[in-house]
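Sequence, please.
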């Protein structure tokens, strides 16, 4: 269970993971050492999975974003495991979600300016194991993105 301070700490870290222990403590009403200890406890409990740098689109080369629905030939465990293992080696795939509904997976694909989605589709996505259908949706503009 999370107490009031844990929720406040998590909220502050979601908003700005660069906070020092002193800054975090000041924002939630703890000393720097107590804030540091609480963050460690939250990590130990698996409530904080880690900290990372979130690169801007500019830093990633202003890629185009394509959301791709993937339908597999079947939903056997072996087919899905083979597909999931193979996509780990595709750098253009930023995220993958197992879905309910018509498609089995949704991929978040980024296409660098010096590349083409046609090439990625033809040479990579259509050759993934078990794939029978791909439906691509080009992102026009990102309206909101939460950390």
């Amino acid at each position: 269970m999370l107490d009031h301070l844990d929720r406040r700490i998590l909220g502050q870290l979601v908003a700005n993971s660069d906070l020092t222990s002193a800054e975090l403590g000041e924002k939630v009403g703890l000393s720097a050492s107590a804030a540091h200890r609480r963050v460690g406890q939250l990590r130990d409990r698996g409530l904080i999975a880690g900290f990372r740098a979130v690169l801007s689109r500019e830093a990633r080369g202003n890629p185009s974003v394509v959301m791709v629905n993937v339908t597999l030939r079947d939903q056997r465990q072996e087919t899905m495991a083979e597909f999931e293992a193979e996509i780990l080696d595709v750098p253009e795939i930023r995220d993958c979600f197992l879905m309910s509904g018509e498609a089995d997976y949704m991929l978040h694909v980024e296409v660098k300016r010096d590349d083409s989605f046609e090439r990625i589709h033809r040479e990579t996505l259509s050759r993934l194991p078990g794939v029978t259908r791909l439906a691509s949706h080009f992102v026009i503009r990102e309206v909101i993105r939460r950390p």
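Residues 32-44 form the longest helix (13 residues).
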